[in-house]
Amino acid sequence: MENNVKTNEKYISPECIEQMLDIARSIRARFAQRNQHPVATVITYGCQQNENDSERIKGMLAEMGYGFTEDKAESDLILFNTCAVRENAEKKLFGNVGALKHYKQRKPSLKIIVCGCVVGQPHAERELKQKYPFVDLVFDTKSVYRFPLLLQRVLFSDERVFETGMADTVAEGIPVLHAKQSSAFVSVMYGCNNFCSYCIVPYVRGRERSRKPEYVVEEVRKLVENGCRDITLLGQNVNSYGKDLGDIDFTGLLEKLEVIEGDFLLRFMTSHPKDMSDRLIAHIAKSRHMPHHIHLPFQSGNDRILKAMNRGYTKADYLALIERIRTAMPDATLTSDIIVGFPTETYEEFLDTIDVVKKARFDTLFTFLYSKRIGTPAAVMEGQIPDDEKHRRFDELIAVQNEISKQINLSYVGRTVKVLADGTSKTDSSVMSGRTDANKVVDFTAPCDVKGKRCIVRITEAKTWSLFGEFVDFCS
Ligand code: SAH
Ligand code: SF4
Ligand code: F3S
To answer: Model pTM?
Structure first.
């Protein structure tokens, strides 16, 4: 069977996907014959791309006849979809996998699976093979579409299966089990070509490859038809979409999506400053579906560090870009990612990062301590920064940003905003919770359950991290 599966082409053939679905259905038939009703636990770490991969894995598990549970003790299959972006995440993962040994001892038929970005690193695959003999199946991000075939081998031959290093491909037609009905992620491209010197992603997710636009348009259209109101297009470097296709760029894809009728929000992440064209900014400014929110990581405000990071822009380039965005969209909300303590970064160089934060006035920042990733150029650079110094800079940066976030949030008090309600507040189940068009979390009181609806909410109170308000009306 495996030899029939073509994997050396960029676009996996429909016949190959059909074979995978056949295998999935035969697994389901086998469970049904034995009157078995297996349940699976899928645990996902990391970014939205991983969430989206897990939705496809769950779609395939459902096709194979699995139900789902969060109770590991009850589970017949436990799958960890892992993230390798920082060392802490990886360490925690190995601890969590280790803890599964007891479940296996209690239930020997339990299948344990580890997939995702951690597994794409040779040292991690080796460790799983040698030190975790109770792990049955390991596969990296490039083999997600082959999951039915891999699981079949594990279920019916009792062998341990390790599959990594397949070609960089794009697979269409895999069933997807979306976590929510009102919002959804749609991956439009996979991989990354940027090789920022600190980052593991290009090594574990391979080279950039774009889905053909017609499949993306079809998926978005169907989601909207089924009531989805908030769609996020995903790519590690989403605004370089189409470079491998030749005849379309990211703005071209957005233009095709713009004509889809319906009341829905279209977001995207993550964009790279070097690929943020004026054409793209102009499109977002006039789009009827796209909120004026841009997540635009800058990582460092210092030119020498940016060069060492291989980011492809300077502090002045970045600030000029922010200016162009603010001119085109004065109401734009901006968010960003920053790394503090990149090797050799001096305190004075770090102050350039603070300077950008003060000038750009982001709504929210995602700040990370530099973490050494094996196999990346930065990991072997001289001049690694001690942990206590990284923490000191981190705290200083957070204090500056908290003040800015608070000021921005306070400016919302008394205003009305549109909020897509997606559930209840984490701290009070009688209070609704949702996100504004600009992706800000708002908890609000409402006269009834408004989950899944777009509402007009008046903001009555603001804190550094959150907004509170009251329901005014439904959006027309
Ligand atoms: N492709 C996206 C996201 C990459 S991972 C982008 O380019 O923005 C998300 C964030 O993790 C990055 O923006 C970066 O700030 C952070 N990150 C990546 N590698 C890291 C490392 N080795 N140490 C600390 N933070 C890291
Ligand atoms: Fe990593 Fe840079 Fe690619 Fe983002 S653009 S995934 S930070 S290499
Ligand atoms: Fe982590 Fe992989 Fe995403 S390393 S951030 S899950 S691409």
So the answer is: 0.94
